[in-house]
Amino acid sequence: YANATIDDHSHSSILTLTNHTSFSIGRAFYPSKIPTKSSFSSNPLPFSTSFIFSIAPFKHLLPGHGFVFLFSPFEGANGVSSAQHLGLFNLTNNGNPKNYVFGIEFDVFKNQEFNDINDNHVGLDVNSLTSLTSQDDIWVSGKHDEKFKELKLNNGENYQVWIEYSDSRVNVAMAIAGKRRPNRPLISELVNLSDVFLDEMFVGFCGATEQLIESHKILAWSFSNSNFSIGDGLVTTNLPSFGFVLGISFGIFIFVIGSAAMVFVVLLKRKRSKRMEEEGDIEDWELEYWPHRISYEDIYAATKAFSEQNIIEFGGMLKDVAMGVLYLHES
């Protein structure tokens, strides 16, 4: 639905939720509803799902926003919006208890209106993008899974996720694709889904961008109401990589120009320090961390008079946020 596509890639099919355009929305679901409540009671059925995803930036573009694995009472893209709403809700229905939506979000933008903990987190959502709980250190490591390690969600790496629900507890685990499943979950939370799940629901994925653009791809997916080891059957080797070429190119480029760049930075800092000392009224800490003082005129010019095309965040509890390019000229 919307901008989502199924792409053939080396004899395999890859779900691409968002494309290279701004304010893109993609939603994709299993073609038919699945039972989510027992026919003998109102208790939600257990489930186990695992998938492999990749979030990759586009060259010369700032990345954002994220995607969600979700249960929804309807298909299609009606009633949802792009940007910070991730193709899951919109400004008016976010937080409505009659949404009947459960999701696990993978978010790379910090929205204060949703109390996001940072710009790189996994969150558990029930009818709202204000997560019930979230985690930013998103990989359990160590011999006995004794510590969390931060992973960058949108670096183009392929990650495998395991999500399980049983006895009112949601467990979410995550690792680099091909690595073993951690014994210790990233998120483990008691959640009563009796009032969220209907008898049958659609299950799938949604994602969105705004002027911050990145690709959101699902490389493999499994789901079951009974087999909690179904994720072990996903193929995790020889998968396409969506961040490798860009990373190698930049690595070579940085290696070649590294020495020249270091010399340039040293000279530039010396020139800046000398100029700021001559201007006076500069505190010592500012000499090292220049610049901290930018005139309104410079900001106005950098954002092209706060033009609409430069707005990267809209409304909510915040004012609009504009993106601009500031050109520094050395005298």
UniProtKB/TrEMBL annotation:
Coiled coil: none
GO MF entries: carbohydrate binding; kinase activity
CDD domains: lectin_legume_LecRK_Arcelin_ConA
Keywords: Kinase, Lectin, Membrane, Receptor, Transferase, Transmembrane, Transmembrane helix
Residue stretches making up the Legume lectin domain: 11-227
Transmembrane annotation, as ranges: 242-268
Domain of life: Eukaryota
Similarity comment text for this entry: Belongs to the leguminous lectin family.
Name this protein carries in UniProt: Probable L-type lectin-domain containing receptor kinase VII.2
The species this protein was found in: Arachis duranensis (Wild peanut)
